[in-house]
Design a protein that fits this description.
Structural class: alpha+beta
Oligomer: single chain
Helix content: 10-25%
Number of strands: 9
Radius of gyration: 42 Å
Largest sheet: 5 strands, antiparallel
Strand content: 15-25%
Order of helices and strands: HHEEEEEEEEHE
Number of helices: 3
Strand order of the largest sheet: 5-8-7-6-9
Length: 225
């Protein structure tokens, strides 16, 4: 009688994992949906930042043609064309300044304006011609500050001729007078400068007296004084 032969089937290496393990490795539809939502939110934030940046850049590129002062100008200066320069600048509120399409010639400054400073709408006013007078004072060049410019402020002193009693001290005739024209050497050959000062009507007589009362000294008034 022949012996019984039995065969053993070796365990398969590809044994399928239990259903619980398969479920653990398979992402649910809910988890996939959450990832999609986060992705969309991130894209929306990026696009929003790009659009906001573009808006800021576009607004900073908005430029306006505005008036600036060509040089330092004192309060009370009656503006002329050579006092002004039109520039193209980017500002947050152009309406706060004077557009170069608006004429400022003949307007009066309410406050000092520095060279290159934008002229604000509130810094100018209409001139009142009846309240201002222009008076020319003859000054020896050695008694006037060098480089005197239109729009500066000066004090005007007058020293009468010496009397028999001795020297007479100078008298302050005008304080903080506005220089309308620093003048040039007199063409008559006297060698004097004709400095034109812009004064109130009430000070016109003092200016004339200064022009005729003796030796005139023009003293520059420093900034903030």
């Amino acid at each position: 009688m022949s012996p019984l032969l039995t065969t053993r089937t070796p365990p398969s290496s590809s044994t399928a994992p239990p259903p619980a393990a398969i479920a653990a490795r398979t992402p649910s539809r809910f988890a996939t949906h959450r990832k999609d939502v986060r992705l969309y939110i991130g894209l929306a934030l990026v696009l929003g930042s790009m659009l906001g940046g573009a808006k800021v850049i576009a607004s900073s590129d908005t430029r306006a043609q505005l008036w600036t002062a060509e040089s330092d100008l004192a309060a009370g200066t009656t503006l002329r064309m050579d006092d002004l320069r039109a520039v193209s600048v980017g500002v947050d509120d152009p309406s706060s300044y004077v557009d170069s399409a608006t004429s400022l010639v003949g307007k009066v400054l309410r406050r000092p304006v520095g060279a290159g400073e934008l002229i604000g709408s509130a810094a100018v006013a209409d001139a009142i011609a009846t309240k201002r007078r222009l008076v020319t004072i003859a000054v020896d060049p050695l008694h006037s500050p060098p480089g005197l410019a239109r729009g500066e402020r000066v004090d005007v002193y007058v020293t009468p001729a010496d009397s028999a009693a001795g020297p007479i001290p100078p008298t302050l005739m005008l304080a903080g007078a506005l220089v309308a024209d620093p003048g040039a050497t007199d063409a008559s050959g006297s060698g004097q400068l004709g400095v034109v000062v812009d004064v109130a009507t009430t000070d016109a007589a003092k200016a004339v007296e200064a022009a005729r009362g003796g030796q005139v000294d023009v003293v520059r008034v420093g900034e903030g004084q």
